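Narrative of activities, Objective 1.

The group set out to show that a structural description can be obtained from nothing but a protein's sequence at a throughput compatible with the screening campaign. Below is one input-output pair from the validation batch, recorded exactly as produced.
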Amino acid sequence: MTVLVVTGTGTEIGKTVTTAAVAAAALAAGRSVAVLKPAQTGVGPGECGDADEVKRLVGGGVTAVELARYPEPLAPATAALRAGLTPVRPHEVADAAAKLATEHDLVLVEGAGGLLVRFDADGGTLADAARQLGAPVLVVAAAGLGTLNSTALTTEALRARDLTPLGVVVGSWPEHPDLAARCNLADFPETSGTKLLGAIPEGAGTHPDFRTSAPSWLAPELDGTWDATAFAASVAG
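Output recorded for this entry:
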């Protein structure tokens, strides 16, 4: 796996922190890593974007690339149009990721919002870029009630486009999980048809030992040590 696309079932569910954790685990395994953010929205010039946040969390050693930046917190296509700026197109994302892959062991492509959020007026999406790359897709999901439906919709959309969902990571596992969250750990694989590959603890973005702790939040498929069965048993109520 040279390129891994990271998408989410929605916004504000922990994609950037998850991307940083995957990067940290890969670095700990001795791999060189690049993070590509095709379209950064809601951030002005000179402000910290998602790629910058990954570098902050990982603490260096990762190449961070941002293709385009739009000031309003909107879908990339809408944000580009309103700003009068050129949109990012899927082939540009694929080309940039492929170039980074010639120089790094792992390239993480972090999308904006969900899988089918539009990059441009022609309807290009992160899924189109993933298809051009032939890359698997990691799905970041919420923990609680309602997440099974949105996760299943995302993985079904991937398969309908002949894309491979590598697995699901819970982007923010609550310190005090409710019944729905605990039950979802067992239900994710059945409803999504893919593996549960990790759970990032709530507030991980402020964890003082993020880089060294990240592998414990992710399964071996992501260079980590996390085990879904053991984790479910540890949080069972």
